[in-house]
Write a structure and sequence with these properties.
This protein has 554 residues and is of the alpha/beta class. The protein folds into 3 domains: 195 residues, 3-Layer(aba) Sandwich (Rossmann fold), CATH 3.40.50.12780; 190 residues, ANL, N-terminal domain (Rossmann fold, 3-Layer(aba) Sandwich), CATH 3.40.50; 93 residues, ANL, C-terminal domain (GMP Synthetase, Chain A, domain 3). A 9-stranded mixed sheet has the order 2-1-10-9-11-12-13-14-15, sandwiched between helices. InterPro entries: AMP-bd_C (IPR025110), AMP-bd_C_sf (IPR045851), AMP-binding_CS (IPR020845), AMP-dep_synth/lig_dom (IPR000873), ANL_N_sf (IPR042099), ATP-dep_AMP-bd_enzyme (IPR050237).
């Protein structure tokens, strides 16, 4: 409840309201309400009233207006809005016969495709809490999550059978997707077999349910991930407005989805896509050439991806000039990984000024956005705050620092998390804003945000602040280097030093000394990596493209 006597709260409330209105206009300008009969619009509205802006509500709403429109293209073919709704409803009804209700907890461990979309779309019919699990999680992490959060059901792709928590009492495992040769000694039912195996209870779906949350797991690469609890979205126009307006998105657009659906970007865009009646084109396992093939075949309007994948896509496209037509692409959206300046310039040269980049976190979701003009002016920028959110760079005293000064990025908007589930983790907040854990600076001239790196990843070498990520970006520019990742390690003399893992591609000779010389010629001396590990194998990355430090080898 707003305190009307508090001027700060009044100002924030008015700012949020203006952002929502501006965002709402941007969404309506997509042509969302054009076409359709009054009866279809009424049925669509009723679905949103009943289920809210959940995947279920948006799927029901879309089916009421364009039932035969394709909603999903995946490795197994195409699904229309009506077909996906039918399968989601059936899944919910059979779950109900097995006692699943709004108090239940269901996990999804699945790559992009119907194996993910069906159980997520079924959620709203029963109101259960849904956990979107990272496919890169270890066996121990999955076991700990299932036990700590008392999962009742787990929908999982068969490729993950070897690490499923089979010893957790009361957990039912269902194969959401089955690959060839995976069911030799496993007796988990496929989702089709589950549909044919109702339990003893009634299959009638409740007329009204209280919606549980959507839980995303923090992308930490060690320990038990934090369970980040989000409420079902409330049509957050002020948050999604900037990319919708800057990209000039049209209702019914075709989107190539490289981003993982279990990740914040993939989940968020999936929700927006159903809101706008879009078609999602995706693949289970990233293949840069297949992305280009899908863009060409389905005449995709947009590409939703991440820097590490865009880099590979660009390389394949440049190596095959004219092979794939990408003239239909009106925008490319990046999030999850910061783009290097070279990557931004390369994408702009190949595709034009249609690139945008979102900045946020699992906890805060989208908090800033850089549109095509922002990246054209400054390829390293994270852009401006979303329209109805707060974003400030704070010093150690918890007060905002002056533009141009480095501090910790804090933010909050209507899509921020409700909190962490369980008693193990507590959110770090200042003045109601979440600490995003990144160092940042506001450009004093443009007012745009620049993200410098994780607060705990900055190292001090010889009294100088060094961001290993900036050294990585530089090394990636070297001829003969395919990829690079730098970390800070302990040092007896200088306390800390830079260590570089460099992937060579064989196109030019790269030596350890050459790497050091290149850094010395371009950065300050303390940034020179004394340890250089040259390798031909790709860096170990998780499903969203982040390097898994524990898997780095010397």
């Amino acid at each position: 409840m707003i305190n009307v006597f508090d001027s700060t709260q009044r100002q924030l409330f008015l700012s949020d309201a203006k952002g929502m209105l501006r965002g709402g206009k941007a969404v309506l300008d997509t042509g969302l309400l054009k076409g359709g009969t009054p009866a279809e619009h009424l049925a669509s509205a009723k679905a949103l009233v009943k289920y809210g802006a959940s995947m279920t509500g948006l799927l029901e709403s879309g089916t009421a207006r364009y039932p035969e429109r394709t909603v999903l293209v995946d490795d197994d073919g195409e699904l229309t809005y009506r077909e996906l709704r039918t399968q989601a409803r059936l899944t919910a009804r059979i779950l109900a016969t097995h006692g699943i209700n709004e108090k239940s907890r269901i996990g999804i461990l699945a790559r992009n495709g119907r194996g993910f979309m069906i159980p997520l779309s079924a959620k709203g019919y029963l109101g259960n809490t849904i956990f979107l699990l990272n496919v890169g999680a270890s066996k121990q992490q999955l076991h700990d999550i299932a036990v700590e959060h008392e999962l009742d059901v787990l929908f999982a792709d068969s490729e993950f059978d070897a690490k499923l928590p089979t010893d957790v009492e009361g957990l039912t495992i269902i194969h959401a997707w089955v690959g060839e040769g995976y069911r030799t000694d496993i007796d988990y039912p496929t989702i089709e077999e589950f549909w044919a195996s109702p339990g003893p209870e009634d299959d009638t779906l409740p007329k009204k349910v209280h919606q549980g949350g959507v839980v995303l797991m923090s992308s930490g690469t060690s320990g038990t991930p934090k369970a980040v609890n989000h409420s079902e979205p409330l049509l957050p126009f002020g948050v999604i407005g900037p990319p919708v307006e800057m990209f000039d998105v049209s209702a019914g657009a075709v989107l190539q989805m490289t981003a993982s659906m279990f990740h914040v970007l993939g989940w968020g865009v999936s929700v927006i896509a159903l809101l706008a009646g879009c078609q999602l084109v995706t693949q289970r396992v990233f293949d840069p050439e297949n992305v280009l093939r899908q863009v060409d075949k389905y005449k995709c309007d947009g590409i939703i991806s991440s820097a590490v994948f865009l880099k590979d896509q660009l390389a394949v496209d440049l190596a095959n000039p004219g092979k794939y037509d990408h003239s239909s692409v009106k925008f490319i959206m990046n999030a999850g990984n910061a783009m290097s300046e070279d990557l931004v310039l390369g994408l702009e040269k190949q595709y034009g000024y249609i690139l945008g980049s979102g900045y946020g976190s699992t906890e805060g979701l989208l908090v800033a956005f850089a549109g095509p003009e922002d990246l054209k002016a400054d390829p390293t920028t994270a852009g401006y705050p979303v329209w109805n959110g707060r974003l400030e760079v704070l010093g150690e005293d918890g007060k905002p620092v002056a533009p141009g000064e480095v501090g910790i990025i804090h933010a909050r908007n209507v899509m921020a998390m409700e909190g962490y589930l369980g008693d193990r983790d507590v959110a770090e907040e200042t003045d109601g804003m979440l600490n995003l854990g990144d160092k940042g600076v506001i450009d004093p001239e443009s007012g745009r945000l620049r993200v410098l790196g994780r607060d705990n990843e900055m190292i001090i070498v010889g009294g100088e602040n060094i961001w290993p990520s900036s050294v990585s970006d530089l090394i990636c520019r070297m001829e003969g280097v395919a990829d690079a990742y730098c970390v800070g390690v302990e040092d007896e003399r200088t306390f800390q030093r830079v260590k570089a893992y460099v992937v060579v591609d064989g196109s030019a000779e790269v030596t350890e000394d050459a790497v050091r010389t290149y850094v010395e010629d371009n950065l300050i001396v303390p940034a020179i990596p004394r340890d250089v590990v040259l390798q031909t194998e790709a860096l170990p990355r998780n499903a969203i493209g982040k390097v898994v430090k524990r898997d780095l080898t010397d």
